[in-house]
Amino acid sequence: MSILIVTGIEGARNCAAVVADQLGVTVEVAEGRKTALTALRKQEFRVIILDESLAQCDPAAAESIWEHAGLAIPLQINFALSGAARLIREIRAALHRREREQALAHKAAAVAIEAQVKTTVAGLLLHSQLALSAGEMSSGIADKLRLVADLANSLRQQLNAPARAARQTSAPTL
Length: 174
Fold this sequence. Notes:
Layout: E1 2-6, H1 12-23, E2 26-30, H2 33-42, E3 47-51, H3 52-57, H4 59-67, E4 73-77, H5 84-134, H6 139-170
Parallel strand pairs: 1-2, 1-3, 3-4
Helix pairs in contact: 1-5, 2-4, 5-6
């Protein structure tokens, strides 16, 4: 993981060294828009910290940096008022927030995919059973439809097994 600090403030390299030491990451300092954009073209950063004074003095530069930030966590900090300790707290909080957001997004995607697969399997099972009940088909086709129905039913049971196991483990034992 690496962090990019964009500031022209004196002592930024000392602050970057403290952040690197405390968080165990590499920290690169860019003193302006051009060096920041060059750094962003060279590598991906996990966090980009932009000095608030730079953002206020040159909003176009700040916007350009944010546009090229990719998936980095953007932080805007007033370096004139904030020390290394506050900066470290802000970075940790942002990283924890991102981890929680990613975990929630991952869980929501898994639930959506599971629901979609279950719906598809239920439809496959229903249509194969309806086709079998029509009765007007050769024995070869009926055998294949029974196989499809059996496979869909097996898949349905496998998909429902984790939910049943979760309900059983959460049920109180007597």
